[in-house]
Each structure stands twice: as C-alpha cells, then as structure tokens.
Amino acid sequence: MSKLLKNSWALFIGYFVLMIAHGFQGNLLGVRSVIEEFSFLSTGMIMSGYFVGYFFGANSIPKLVGKVGHIRVFAAFASMASLSILIHAVFINPFIWILARFITGFGIVGIFIVMESWLNDRANNRTRGQLLSIYMFITLIGLAFGTLLLNFSSPEKYEPFILISVLLSLALIPILLTKRKPPKFKKLGFIDIKGLYKTSPLGTVSMLCTGIIHSALFTLGAVYAASMNFTIFEISLLLFLVTVFGGVFQWPVGYYSDKSDRRIIIIFCTFISAFFCFLLILASGTSLENMYLATSVGVDKIMFFIYIACYAGFAIPIFTLNLAYVNDYITKEKFVAAGGGMQIIFGIGAMTGPLICASLMNKFGTNGFFIHLLTFHLIIGVFGLYRITKRSYKDNPESTFTPLPRNITPLGIELDPTTGADISSEDKSK
Predict the structure, then answer these.
(1) Phi and psi of 390, rounded to 5°?
(2) Which domains does the chain have, with CATH numbers?
(3) CB within 8 A of 348, min separation 6: which ones?
(4) Which of 1-15, 178-192, 276-290, 380-394 has the highest average model confidence (pLDDT)?
(5) Residues 121-166: tens digit of each pLDDT
(6) Which residue of 217, 221, 252, 328 has the lowest C-beta tally within 10 Å?
(7) SS3 201
C-alpha cells in the first residue's frame, strides 16, 4: 500500500483538490441562480448544460488523449474548467451560464478520463481494489469538503468563483510535476444500448432513471434549499449529508445485494427512497394545495435533515446496484464494456434530469423537486416488480457489488477487481 501511495501521490492530491472544487461549484451556482432570480426552468437548463458537456466529452475525449497525450489533455481541460467558472462571475446571464456549464462538463470529464487511465496504468490485478477504494474515499471526502465551502463567502460576491478557479488550477500542479511517464491510451469497447436492454431490461431502465434522479439531486438540491430560505450553513449541511450518507451506505447495501436477489435490493432501496421523498415533502412546510392534499405540515428542520440523509443512503447506491445487476447476466470479460454502455445510459438520463425537475418545480413550486425524485423512484420500483414476474433470478458468482463514485468513467470501472480487466504489464508477463 505504501508503495502504491508513493507512486500515485501526485494523482491523488491533484484529484482531491479537483473534487473539492467540483463539489463547490455546482452548488454555488444553484444558490446564486436563486439569488439572481433565475426561473426554475432557466436554472434547470444551466444545470443540464454540465451533463451535456460531460456526455459529449466522455465520448470524444478518449480519441484526443490517444492523439496528443495525457498531460497535454489534463492541462488543457483543467485550464478550460478553471476559466469557465470565472465566466459565471463576470456575465450574470442564464444563456451564458448554460454555455459555461457545458464547457465545465466537457473539461471535467476530460480530467476524469486522464486520471482514471493513469491509475489503471499503475495498477495490477493485486492492487486494483486498493486503488479503487482510495479513489472512492478521495471522491467522497473531496465532494463533502467542497459543499462546506459554501460558507467561505457570500454567493453574491466574486470570491467563491475565484476560489474555485484557484483550486482547479492547483489541481494541475502535482500532475504536471510528476516524473512518471504517462500511460499509453487503450481503446474502450462498449455494449450498445439495445444489447444492454436485451441483457437486462431492469438494469437499463433503472440506470436511465437513476441518471434523471441523481443529476437533479446534485444540481438542484441547492436550488431547492435556497428557494426554501435555508441559510448558507443549512444548505451546505444538506449537501454534505447527501454526499456522505450516499457514499457510506454503499458498503452495507452492496453486502446485502451480494447475498440475495439483487433485484429485490434495487426495488427495496428505490421504494424506501420514494417513501423518504414523501416525508421530505411533508417536512418542507410549504403549501400542499397543488398536490391535492388536504393539509400542510409545519417545518421540522431536524427531521428534514434526518430524512434527507436517509434518502441519500438508499438512493445513491442504486447507481452501483444497476451496474452489478447487469453484470449478473454477462460474462466477466464483458463487465467493462457493459459498464461503458451503462454510463452512456446514465448520461442520457442525467442530461434530461435537471430540465424535467425544473419543469415540475415551475408547476408545483419547490416541492416539485421531491415530486421529481419520488416519481422516478416509483418508475424503477414498479418496473422492477414487473420484471420479477418475467424472469427468474440468475446468480453469477463472478459479479459482486463494488462501491463506485457516480462520476466514474468507463476507464475507472476497470479499477474494479471483479471486472477481470488485465491492465497490468506485470501480470501479462507471467
């Protein structure tokens, strides 16, 4: 482990700083959008812009890496992301912000691709699991710290935007100073969407809905809280709880999914998530007239934070549950390709999630945020119950649940020791 850390410290430090900035910027823009009185629909388009850029970047940047090299791509896209956040501070305009978020998403995924391919190159079949665990831990801690930076300065000022730009620039330094040679980039294979649906209808539909859910949760959560007149500290606490509980709950959820029919765990987690969405609506204290309910319930912020933490604990692991469930029906050699295809499906959902959620918030008010989450959780759950009647469960001993960050790319999936990906030159020589 010590040798592993010694050889990869520059990557991990750079990535940690990057995740702090990443966790900060999306939530900052959500709060600032409310302050600037952007409509929910405009804000949804802004947040969707990031995922559109991320999606197109994920499918085009690997070719660029293969042509010009890891270091040049990392430096270029980190600089791009650093500059794009400053655009938001200079031009307070929803249309410009949409473009800037597209640039940010395109640049961020470029950085992720470089990071993960570099880690793959340094891993072998004995150390992949350790590297993935470190990667997951750094992602979780970095994002959590980033949410707390909302308390750094007022979102109305320019200082938070400058801080994000500085952090993104700092993330460059350890990578650019490394003496180790960059890896050779390998071509990735994908299983097409039609093939994935034929292999696992539930996994495919659930991943699409998960993209719709997670993108709205992590981009419009701050918008919801700011619209509810939460203090900056309360907003940062909400986002911190979502990040931490969503990450920590992956281990127990994964453990039980490996011991039983994984479909049952998916259905259980998504129905429990829907239940907590309903409780969050009740705890919000806003008028429920538009939802055709007869009464309203007073605010209880303590219970609200408990509910949101519990919600995240069951909702966030569904992403990895979907990957593991699809792997239950394919051979080990296809795990990485299937993961790449599932990421494409997740990306399609993520591009539309903020827009759909924003539309519901326009119609139902702030509670449209939780109506959005509840609706798509119910879709997953109901479709899961339907699929149980159509197919018997297949136990694949080669497929296990491995906690993964939601921002992982197909290259990062290769770090999962259960994929069977031979990424070690050392192993190949034996």
Answers:
(1) -105, -15
(2) 10-172+189-420 (1.20.1250.20)
(3) 55, 208, 211
(4) 380-394
(5) 777 767 777 788 888 888 899 999 999 999 888 888 889 999 999 9
(6) 252
(7) helix
